[in-house]
Amino acid sequence: MALPSNLVPTEASPEWLNKADNAWQLTAATLVGLQSVPGLILLYGGAVKKKWAINSAFMSLYAFASVLVCWMIWGYRLSFGDKMLPFWGVPNFALDQKYLLDMAFLGSFPTATMAFFQFVFAAITVILIAGAVLGRMNFYAWMLFVPLWLTFSYTIGAFSLWSPKGFLSKAGVIDYSGGYVIHLSSGVAGFTLAYWVGPRLTKDRERFPPNNVLLMLAGAGLLWMGWTGFNGGDPYVASVDASLAVINTHTCAATSLLVWVFLDIAFFGKPSVIGAVQGMITGLVCITPAAGVVQGWAAIIMGILSGSIPWFTMMVVHKRSVLLQKVDDTMAVLHTHAIAGTLGGLLTGVFAEPKLNRLFYSIQGEYMGLFYGIDMGEARTGFRQLGLQIGGILFIALLNIITTSIICLVIQLFIPLRMSDEDMEIGDEAAHGEVAYAIWGDGEKMENSRYGTSVYDVEDPRKAATSSGGQLEMT
After folding, report:
1. By the 8 A CB rule, do 392 and 385 touch?
2. Is 447's pLDDT higher than 50?
3. Closest CA to 399 of 194, 131, 152
4. What is the structure's pLDDT at 472?
5. Dihedral of CA 72/188/330/140: which sign?
6. pLDDT tens digit string along 383-436?
7. What residues contact 47, with CB distance under 8 A and at least 6 apart?
8. Which range, of 154-168, 234-248, 362-376, averages the lowest pLDDT?
9. What is the DSSP string of 163-208?
10. Which pairing describes strands 88-89 and 83-85: parallel, antiparallel, or unpaired?
C-alpha cells in the first residue's frame, strides 16, 4: 500500500526520522532556551538592586552565547561523543553536516536536534551559577569562567549521568532531566564560586531590594512554563511518559509554591512574592530528576517537602550557621538548587515506579525505588537504587567543589575575581558604562512606608518579623 506523500522517505526526511518527535524536540529545546533568554535575564535583572540590573542580565546573555560556541566546537562531543574515559567523551567538533544530519545517539531525530536540545541545558546550568555571585563578580573573570567550567565540570557530569557510555548511567543512577547534572551542579558550583569571589559590599548585602518585582515575576513565569520543555523533552519522544513528566512537573511546582507561601505567612505574618518564586523554583528543581518516573501522588509529596525543607535550610539553618553566613550567595542557589536537587535525587530513589522506569529506559526491573522495592518484596533492589542516588549526589558535589575551586584559582592568577569596592559602589555604569533606568530611586521604600520590609531584603528575617509585629517561633 502506497504511503501518503508526506510520509514517503526522502533525502531530507530519511526513513528513521520521526517528524512528530523531531518537531516536539525542537519545540522543547526552544522552551528551555526561553527559560534563559529572556527568562533568567528578566528574573536576575529585576531581582537585584537597580545599579546591578544590567550587569546581572548581561551575565546571563553572555553565558548563553559563549556556551553555544564552545558546545558546538568541543562541548557536545565531550558530553555525548565517543568514550575517552568512564566520565568523559572525546573532544571533537559538532559542525559538519554528515555528523549533524545523522541519527542522534537516542531518539528518532538528527544529531543537530539533539545538539541544540542539550545546549540549552548546558547554558541554563552556567547561568544558574551566576545567580550566586550577582552584584560583585568581575565581568572579565566571568567571561573566562563560563567556557572553563563548561569544559571541565559540566561535560563530565553530563557524560557520566546522561551518556549511555557514562559510568553512572551504566550503574543505574536515575537523573530524568537534570536534578544532578544541572541543579545540584549549579548549586554547589555557585556556592563554591561565591566563596572564592567574596561578598558584596556590606551595605548591599544587608539591603538588596529587587528593583522591579513585576519584571522578576515575568522572568519567573517564563522559567516555570519553560519547564514543560525542560522535563517533557527528556524522553526524546512525544510519548505518554513525556506527558506524565509535564503534569508532574507543574503539580510539584504549584504545591511547593503554596507550602512556601503558607510557611512565610505562619512565621513572618506576610505572603512574600519573592518567597513564592523561591518555592516555585525549589519545586521545579526537586521534581526534575524524577519527573517521568514517579506517580502524581509522589509529585505532591515531593512538592510538600521541596516547599518546606529548603525553606527551613534558607530561613533557619542558614541564619544560624556561621559557615553559611560567611559565603554571600546572592540568589540562594545553594538552597534552591543544591539542596532541592539533592532532595529530588533522594526522593527519586524512594518513589521511582518500576513500570514508569520501563517506559523511560526500556529496561525491565532494573530501576526501582525503595517504596516499591519494599512493597514488592524486593527491598534489596530498592536500597540499591537509593544507594546509587546517594553515590551520584556525592560524585557531582565533589566534582563541582574541586573543579570550580581550581578554575577560580587559575583565573585569579590573571584577573581579579571580584570587582573593586569603588566599582561596586557604582555598579552597572562602572562595569558597562550603562544604566538600566533613567529615573530616581534604587528600590528603596519611603521612610514612612506602612508596609515594612520583605523578609528577603535583610540578612536576618527574624528582625523583620519582630519590627513588623509578626511572630517567629523557630527553635
Report:
1. no
2. no
3. 152
4. 39
5. negative
6. 999 999 999 999 999 999 999 999 999 999 999 999 999 999 999 999 999 999
7. 56, 210, 216, 219, 274, 331
8. 362-376
9. STTSHHHHHT---SSSIIIIIIHHHHHHHHHHHHH-PPPHHHHH--
10. antiparallel
Compute the residue count for the chain: 475
Name the nearest CA neighbour of 310 among 355, 341, 288, 289. Answer: 341
Distance CA(330)–CA(383), nearest Å, equals: 37
Three cell numbers, residue 355:
513500570
Per-residue pLDDT tens digits for 220-246: 999 999 999 999 999 999 999 999 999
Residue that has been written with the C-alpha cell 531525530 in this structure:
109
Kindly give, in sequence order, each residue whose CB lies less than 8 Å from that of residue 436, ignoring residues fewer than 6 positions away. 45, 50, 53, 54, 211, 428
Q: Given this model, what pLDDT does residue 419 score?
A: 97
d(CA 42, CA 127) in angstroms, rounded, equals 12
What is the residue whose three cell numbers read 549526589?
393
Q: pLDDT tens digits for 297-317?
A: 999 999 999 999 999 999 999
Which residues are bridge partners to 110 per DSSP?
A: 103
* Position 297, amino acid: W
| Cell digits of residue 475 | 527553635
Residue 247 has pLDDT above 60, yes or no: yes
Written as one letter, the residue type at 262 is: F
Helices (H) and strands (E) in the chain, counts: 25, 2
C-alpha atoms less than 13 angstroms from C-alpha of 426 in its C-beta half-sphere: 12
* pLDDT at 143 (0 to 100): 98
Tell me how far the alpha carbon of residue 451 is from its chain's centroid: 33
